[in-house]
Design brief:
globular; 3 domains; Arc Repressor Mutant, subunit A; alpha/beta; aminotransferase; 41% helix
Amino acid sequence: MTSWMPELRGRSGPLYRAIADALSEDIDAGRLAPGTRLPTHRELAERVGVTVGTVTRAYAEAEKRGLVSGEVGRGTFVRDREVPAHMPTPVELAHDDSPVELGINAPATPEGDPASQALRRSLEELGRTSRLPELLAYQPAAGTTAHRAAGAAWASRFGLQARPEQVVVCAGGQHAMEVALAALTRPGDTLATEALTYPGIKVLARRFQLRLQGVAMDAQGLVPESFEAACRNGTVRILYTQPTCHNPTGAVMPEERRRKVAEVARRHGVVVLEDDSYGLLAETRPPPLSTFLPEASYFIAGVSKLLTPGLRIGYLVAPARARGERLAEEVGLASLMTTPLMAEVLARWVEDGTADELVVRQRQEVADRLDLTRAMLGRGVQREAPVPLYHLWLGLPEGRRSEEFVAQARRNGVSVTSADLFTAGPGPVPAAVRVCIGAPRTRVQLERGLRRLREVLDAGPEPLAAIV
């Protein structure tokens, strides 16, 4: 590793850009040869006297310029600039009329696809160990002790302290929701959730024959007084909630409100299922709601939206005094076990810091994509969340309906998601759509999709005769 130190004297503008400029000059001057490993983010931050986030953004800027390539778990290296990555030509861009997907809520792919690099390296390492046959054999339904310990360590990143025996390893967050509802509810029970909620919970409510009750929410999430009223007026068995980085609105519930919701649940004997799929995208956040109701809260520590969905691993954390056998039984009934090989990969990432690095890269990619989104759509149009996320709750101009707008956008070559999919209960459907800026693989594709979306916003509703 080089002891490179950027020369920043006499430079103006943001510090991250000044570091990238200094790196470019040293590469051009031959002071940094191709293949040179640069200092880690933390080491360079300490040398220069800046934050780790500044160095992360500087390296990301250098990667965009084709100066370096980052390999999660190995470091950042100077690239051979004689072999640049392919970028679409103006002619290619002008003639690309393929549809752009802004409806699927997937994590963004940072430059260099660090998750794929990390997976490739982990699989190579596993192939050289003696543990591979063990990972191909049957395992306990709740996961091995080591994999459950990794789940407890991952939950601690969200601010939730748990022991390994409280953790059940599931095949993603959706599976964790299914396992929890199967173990905790019976047909006819009432499932309360925010008035706007993740569509997957609506599907599961129908499957388990639960009565779904939407509870009023505002810009800060679930309204405690409305939750209290729902508990008094009916038999609410369980509350499914996303207090941090709510999907679709992005709302973040303040700590004091979390305490109030927890107290309402305690008074009425309601079990809480807390889904934290996106929380680590926020560098600072309130404690999980589950910390205020530890005796009756089940917590889903998300992975797919923070690292990569293809691992299909999620962690379900039960209360300390709960009997986890029922949860494990539901996993066993559905699939016998969650794939041990992928659970092992994630356990290694949690232990060696790869998972944390991937989250940092994801935060930076989200910030850059949001800058592009604001430039294309304007700040006054979108209802921005307090935390940078790759899903936006886009308010529509007066007179526009969600379903009509979605259909018009699709005809214009861009997909977004209608508000009616998120509406829980019979209330009115908001004039809004969810826009996902992480789904396009490149920022070039994202820009094309946002431009088409801007055109639909500016064009106004189509004549009725054009809608068949």
